[in-house]
Design goal:
Four Helix Bundle (Hemerythrin (Met), subunit A), 183 residues, single chain, mainly alpha, 74% helix
């Protein structure tokens, strides 16, 4: 029994010693990675954060369509609609004032015309997203994977891609292919 307690005391001492050396000891900045240069910083805007939520539910919706889980398609449709509603509540309060994101985009939050114009753009595209998501949910009730997928594809092209083409500063080169195919 005495050997076990001695081993426990030694292990405790070694853990304290290791912790002390790593935090305060020789070359502690290297041990704590303080000298590592950061090559990439993710500077996400609130809009991007909310769009990632919508994107996540859209991906889950596609997964559900592909395996024929139509209950999950309905669930994800509701989540996309709810996330779209959150976007409007987050960026335009009930009194119509714009938030910090507005000025970060180079707009004047005190300019009522600019706020109204941006709000109308948000409403237009979010309405397209919610209407298209409802359409996917309605189509999924037929339990036909192909029809449901076609409705989903229409949502991406008519709502998501159109908004991204307007709102994003840089858009991937492959989007020009989508534009050509639609014409």
């Amino acid at each position: 029994m005495k050997k076990i307690s001695n081993v426990c005391i030694v292990m405790l001492f070694v853990s304290f010693l290791t912790t002390g050396v790593l935090t305060c000891g020789w070359k502690c900045s290297e041990a704590l990675c303080e000298d590592i240069e950061v090559l990439h910083e993710d500077k996400s805007s609130p809009t991007q954060g909310l769009m990632r939520i919508i994107s996540s539910h859209t991906s889950k919706m596609l997964d559900a369509i592909m395996i024929g889980d139509f209950d999950a398609v309905l669930k994800e449709s509701v989540e996309i609609i709810n996330a779209s509603d959150v976007v409007m509540r987050m960026f335009f309060s009930a009194d119509g004032k714009a938030g910090e994101w507005f000025s970060k985009a180079g707009n004047d939050p005190d300019d009522p015309k600019a706020v109204i114009a941006m709000k109308e753009e948000f409403e237009k595209y979010l309405k397209q997203v919610t209407d298209a998501s409802r359409n996917v949910a309605e189509t999924s009730k037929s339990k036909n994977i192909v029809e449901t997928y076609n409705s989903f594809d229409s949502m991406l092209r008519k709502a998501c891609f159109k908004c991204h083409q307007t709102a994003r500063l840089e858009w991937p080169g492959w989007m020009t292919q989508v534009e050509v195919e639609e014409k």
